[in-house]
Amino acid sequence: MKQLTPKEVEELLTEGKTLNIIDVREVDEVKEGKIPGAVNIPLGLIEFRMHELDKSKEYVMVCRSGGRSGRAYQFLEGQGFKVINMEGGMLAWEGKVE
Fold first, then answer.
1. Which is the catalytic residue, given 41, 63, 76, 84?
2. Is 63 one of the annotated active-site residues of the chain?
3. What are phi and psi of 29, to 5 degrees?
4. Which domains are delineated in the chain?
5. pTM above 0.90?
6. pLDDT digits (tens, 9 = 90+) for 52-76
């Protein structure tokens, strides 16, 4: 499984890199704050909304602690998507939130 730490994700964003971040937490969890620019697609809806994603892009999967994003990673990778899991999830995120 390809992974990045929250610090690595934050550094890439600070450097101006464009990251396609998918937050797979539930809507009420995301209301507490998400990484700026992240798109919320709850884990249970990934299968039904993957048509919104572009297989030519790479996606960083995020959840609360890294478990659900790992499951989303495995599912999307199996469908031919390029994905990275942010280990530790939002519990380990120290950057800005929106």
1. 63
2. yes
3. -70, -40
4. 3-91 (3.40.250.10)
5. yes
6. 999 999 999 999 999 999 999 999 9
